[in-house]
Amino acid sequence: MNSWRTHYKKALIALSLLLCTSVSIYAQDASKGDPENGETLFKANCAACHALDKQLVGPALGGVVDRVKQEENLDVDWFYKWIKDNKALRTSGDKYANELFEKFNKTEMPVFANLSDQDVDDILAYTTNPPKQDDAAATTADKAQDPAQLEAERTEKTNSLIILVSLLAVSGLLVWLLIKLRQLVKLNQSEELSVFNECQIRNFGELYEKYNTIGKLVLGILAVFAAYGVWNWLMWVGVYKGYQPEQPIYFSHKIHAGINKIDCQLCHSGAKYGKVSEIPSLNVCMNCHKFISEYKGEYVQAGKTKDFYTGEIKKIYDAVGWDEKTQSYTGKTHPIQWVRIHNMPDFVYFNHSQHVVAGAKTIMAAKNVDIVCKACHGKIDTMNVVQMANDFTMGWCISCHRTTQVDMTNGYNEAYFKNLHAKLEKQYGKGTKITVDAIGGIECGKCHY
């Protein structure tokens, strides 16, 4: 019996030593890497498909080293093989690698042969012990207003109210004084003043009779100004420069086209190939936002928060029926009713492809703007909410056609307008700049049916 107890105690001691050794190994594996550098590497290589706290395309990676060790008894060496060349690991018959591949819809994970062992250690250190977010790095838009600033605003409002009440009191006092003075004048009015007052003009009719000619002249001038005002008002009917409607989903072009440098035609793909530029379908949005479920950018518009932007991304998910937990579509969808901003009248023909393809080189050659889209839509990459940047009147379009130089260096224009170019050079001399109006850009039939 004593012998059995002795062996049992030795077994317990050995097991304890083994567990301590395992914990020590885990600690060493976690401490080998640099979590801060790992965060940078994670965002550059892994964040498109993984998050620490939830499943995206792939599993959540928070604490993945300990989890895999406990569940599959696999150490860091397995991660080196999986991250650097997961396909080769699966081909070798690794059981866990193939289970992961099957579990996550047979989605191919990219090969990261460029990452060194130290890089992998850094990434794993980040997943094990991510650096705490510095509260001081929060943007000013996310913070509450400064108490001193709030106090200053209250003081300003109080002072404004005091000034307003004082002005009203002074105005009341002046009215009272005028009334009293009028009563005093009536009491002290002499007979001579009464006779003089009877000769005074008392109304506009008497004034007009006395100054008939001058009155007609003044009325004529007023009529001319009124007619001009009506004409000027009619000329601006249907002109909505500055129109900036609220959209059902808040979409910041400044974040997408400005900060992230996304090309306009990535979303508005029809602009290069058709008459209209098209409103992007939500499937286009999901190409990126399937993997970007939270806003983590540095820029935050005044009055907004990062949570606000994240909430707008969730509206996209709701519209397309995307379930974040299962990373799949539910089939429950509903359309987004975008508010149209630019809308040409029915009698006007405008072709986006003609301007984007031919106009791009023309406008860039003239060095008026950096890209053709801005010629009409303004600095769209600086707008949080898109607005109509120009008048879009016929005069505005004609002015553009009269000042924009045609690029004659490309093969098509050089061949197609060869005779015209020669004619203009003969008429105006060599070095003549051909503008759009010279090639029919202001003919009525070009824009009107």
TrEMBL record:
Alphabetized CDD domains for the sequence: Cytochrom_C3
Alphabetized GO MF terms: electron transfer activity; heme binding; metal ion binding
Q: What is this protein called?
A: Cytochrome c, mono-and diheme variants
Do the record's keywords include Disulfide bond? no
Q: Where is this region: Disordered?
A: 130-150
Keywords, comma-separated and alphabetical: Heme, Iron, Membrane, Metal-binding, Signal, Transmembrane, Transmembrane helix
- The UniProt transmembrane annotation reads 161-179, 217-239
